[in-house]
Each structure stands twice: as structure tokens, then as C-alpha cells.
Amino acid sequence: MESIQHEKGTISIHTENIFPIIKKFLYSDHEIFLRELVSNAVDATQKLKQLASFGEFNGELGDLKVTVSLDEEAKTITISDNGIGMTADEIKKYINQIAFSGASDFLEKYKDKTDDKGQIIGHFGLGFYSAFMVAKEVEIVTKSYRENAEAARWVCDGSTEYELTAAERPERGTDIILHIAEDSEEFLNKGRIRGILDKYARFLPTPVEFDGEVVNNTTPIWTKSPSELTDEDYKTFYRELYPMSEEPLFWIHLNVDYPFNLTGILYFPRIKNELRFQREKIQLYSRQVFITDEVKDVVPDFLMMLHGVIDSPDIPLNVSRSFLQADTNVKKINGYITRKVADKLNELFNADRKGFEEKFDDIGLFIKYGILSDEKFWERAKNFVLLKSTDGTYATIDEYREKTQANQTNKSDTLVWLYTTDRKQQDAYVASATRRGYDVLLLDNVIDAHFINALESKLEKVQLQRVDADTLDKLIDKDISNDSVLSTDDQTKLKELYEKTLDNKTLTITVAAMPADEMPVTITQPEFMRRMKDMSALSGEQSFYGNMPAMYNVAINANHPLIGRLLAETDEAAQQSLVKQTYDLALLAQNMLTGAELTAFVQRTVAKL
């Protein structure tokens, strides 16, 4: 074999000097130099294993591993592997000519022998040049696996000039030696290096050794078949990913190889009523190399609060691998994840209805958000989304329709579903509805203001009304009027008395014949106004309705004994006191009586005892 000649030359690139561009613009985060170089080293060992499986390498594989070494005194970081190595010609091709990619060459050569693209990360190419973000000089000492190969040394100081010479290296493989620049000496620290390896290399498929110990798990559970795994395996892995989190509710194992390659595990965490992105995010990997935890577009919006891991070599990344690029595969993967989640939820619902109901307070947020954001998800979810009543029972949409059809259909043949957003605050109204045999839904989730609108738009002849949005006879108007014990003149007199005493332009006062066991005075806010305000508050933006002053309806129960007593009172001051007392009781029932008004109410009440 012809020996290596000492050679100096200029790297063939289109830009006069690419290194400052790499350092400043190409990579968003300098620490990823270690991810790129360790990934390349792992790839070199994986390629050797493949060549052995093809029968093109018959030597001893030995203990394949990658070693990261730090020499604080010499100010160097070395990444070593015992993989395929390179000849001098390969250095010229893969390192000097930046337009070439060793990975694409390798794939092209062996495409007929394997469909296992997942083993190829991309040996050298642009990833190698990330070394110059932190190094003032980079050395490669390498020896090819090929028989009688001669070791070679390549050195470059970050300009477009390099030096290539023969070298001493007894075993096959590659050492990348980084002479760290002054402005990057933060990386000459064991803790810093360990932190980067923990972040990016913790699941690489070849052992990575640093400071005398292996830092990675080479066979994370998403690389295994679900049939090999127990529930405890999934829970243990979750604790490994998120040590401070509660145990997950359940999980979904993703595994598809057509029309794209995707594996992973998504966990449903216990999040209760919090509509916020968790610190513990879904992690995106490419062939076991950590890429990012910003998985927008890959994962549908409504599942961004899930935890876990997605691994796909088919997700297109920009050159720094940090940002996803728009692509049809990304849309397909997004759709696949949506289907898998819907199928899993449907399976859980059908297999264990009681267990599903017990989990629903936790998972309802995901399901409702999915219904709001994805029409295809609604088509699946409408069979298992549950509606919870104030008595704690659950029903599917079809079950609830059947449950309420007979008693809650109004004169227009529209089914009216009553709901409360605050069981304690609206207790008097819930109790009133329950006495009439009406069911009341508990819709107190942060997303329910939008979910209510979605239900009305998707279901025919169904209307939702908050239980305190009007008197019950108006909420579910069956065209049945109660007889009033008061004459028309008394009703007019009563209305004028309340208007004069309360003297409040934001109140619309009416007299209504209600059952005698209802409140003497009921205060309500129209459903459309309340709903607009709720949605405005949820969005965090001030809308036209959000800025409007609150308008309330005050309904006086003509048939309540206390109202009859009020009318019979001849002392004007006593009469006004009763008006104020009954109105304050209505405010109290809505938790709207506060401050000086509450103090005055208490004092009046005490005085009457």
C-alpha cells in the first residue's frame, strides 16, 4: 500500500471561510459540538457492526465503545472510538470536501443490503465542523479497519488550510482532539461535559465512557418490543426521565416503520386542571441522539402536555439539528400520533369503563382540547369523552342525551343541558335544579368555556345553559306557566319598589311566578354574556364583552311567602330593609356579596334575631 505523503492544502468549500459562520450563525448552541462528535463516533462503531454483519469485516469487533477524555492542563477534549476509522483518502473526501457526506455514500453503497437506516447518523460532514465552535485547532488521528491501512493525522486551525501526515495509532478507530479556544474554556470542566453527555448522549446505542464510567443506557425501552416489557419497565423508565413526577396514568408505545420510521413512548401525566406546558416536555431523538424538547408540529397541540420520548430518523431538521422543518412527513407523524392516542383511549374506555372514569378528571383536559383542535380526533373521541354530573356520575354524549331527553327538552324540542362552573358557589342554583328533577353537569375545567361552545356546534338541537343564567322556567322553557298569588297591580308595585330601593342601572328587574320553595329573589347573568366573559378571561385578552360592565337580571319570586310579607309591610323603612335583605341573599347565593355590603347584611341579620 502506498504510504501517506505529508500534504498541505486548502479545504474545498464554497465560502472563503466557513468557520466563523459555523461559530456564529450555523449552530444555535455551542454545547452541541459534543453531541455531533460523539454521535459521529457512535456511528463509526455502528457501521463496523454492519460491515461485520455483511461479511465485509472479518476481524474481531472487540468491545465497541466511545470514550470522551478531558485534559484540563493541556486544554483538550478528546473523543475516541474504535469503529471503522478512515484512510487518508477518506479524510480528503469527507473532511476536506464539505459537500460530501460519508453517511450518504455509505447508504448508497449498502442500500440493497439493509433497510436499517436507523443505524446511520451521518459520519462527519457538517457535524464534524461544529468542533470549530469551541476549538482553536482540531486534530484527527485515525486508522481504517481495512487490512494494512496506515494511520493518518489531519490538523486544521480553523482557517481553510489543513495539514495531513502519517501517524502512529496501533488500533483501528478515530481520535478527535479539540484544542479548546480561550472563549470556550467553560467546556474544560468535568461537570459541564458530564451535563452535556447526560443531555444528548444518555441513550446512544454504543457505550459512551467519561471519567471512568459509562454514561448512557444503550437499549432504552422504546427500542424494544412492547411484548418484552412489563408495566414496571415503563414506570421505571418514566422515573428515569422525570425523577420528580408522580406516576403516570398510562402510556402509549409508538412503533411504525412505514411510511415513516417512528418509535417512542408517550406518557399521560397527572395534570389535573392545569392548562400549562410542563417543565417535563416530550423529548425528540433521532436514532437515540437527543435533538430537542421543542416538538411543536411533530406532536399535535393538544398532546404537548404529554411526557415521554419520540425517536424518528425521518423528521427533517435544519443543519444544526435544533429546529424542525416543515415537511409532509411531519404532518403524517402528527396524524399518526393523534390516531394512536385516540385508539388507546378508546381501548381503555372499552376494556375498563370504571378505570377510565377514575382517570377522567386527569385526562379529560387532553380529550377536550383534542376535540376543540382536531376534527378527526372528535370523530373518534365523541364515543369516549365523558360528561360528569354534579352527583359524580359519568356518561358518554349518547348516554347523557338519553338520560335527559324526557325531562330537559324545551318547547322548541331543543334539549337543554344545565351546567355549573363552580359547584360550591352555585350550590343554591344546583339544588334548585335538582329539586325539579333536572341533572346538572360539572364543567369547571379551564378549557370548558370553549368545550361548551364546541358541543353546541357539533350536536344537533342541544343547548347548554349555566344553572344560574336565568330562572329555571326560562332556562328550560316548557311553555308551562305557574299561577301567581299576586295581582298585576301588586306585581307592578313590587317591581317599582325594588327599582327605587336598589337604584342600580345595571339591573333588569322582573317579577316571576315561581314555586314557593325557590329563593325569594334570584340574580342571574345572561348565558351569552357570561360565556363571552369566561372565554375572554381564559384567552387573557380583553374583548368587547370582557370590557363591558356586568349586567344582571333580578327575578322576584311572586309566590314566595317573604315577598308577600314585604308587600304587606306598611312601614317604608322596614319595607326597604326587606328589599335590601332579599336582594343581598340573592347576591350571597352567587358569592357576590362582599366588603361593606356584606358587613351591613350581617349587621341587619343580627339585629333581626
UniProtKB/TrEMBL annotation:
CDD domains: HATPase_Hsp90-like
Membrane as UniProt keyword: no
Pfam families: HATPase_c_3, HSP90
InterPro entries named among the record's database cross-references: HATPase_C_sf (IPR036890), Heat_shock_protein_90_CS (IPR019805), HSP90_C (IPR037196), Hsp90_fam (IPR001404), Hsp90_N (IPR020575), Ribosomal_Su5_D2-typ_SF (IPR020568)
Keywords: ATP-binding, Chaperone, Cytoplasm, Nucleotide-binding, Stress response
Domain of life from the UniProt record: Bacteria
Keyword Transmembrane helix carried by entry: no
SUPFAM superfamilies (UniProt xref): ATPase domain of HSP90 chaperone/DNA topoisomerase II/histidine kinase, HSP90 C-terminal domain, Ribosomal protein S5 domain 2-like
Residues passing through the membrane, by range: none
Signal sequence annotation: none
GO MF assignments: ATP binding; ATP hydrolysis activity; ATP-dependent protein folding chaperone; unfolded protein binding
Positions contributing to ATP binding: 36, 40, 81, 86, 101-102, 174, 321
Matching PROSITE patterns: HSP90
Entries under Gene3D superfamilies matching the protein: 3.30.230.80, 3.40.50.11260, Heat shock protein 90, C-terminal domain, Histidine kinase-like ATPase, C-terminal domain
NCBIfam families recorded: PRK05218.1
Family: Belongs to the heat shock protein 90 family.
Protein name according to UniProt: Chaperone protein HtpG
Species in which this protein is naturally found: Spirosoma rhododendri
Gene name of this polypeptide: htpG
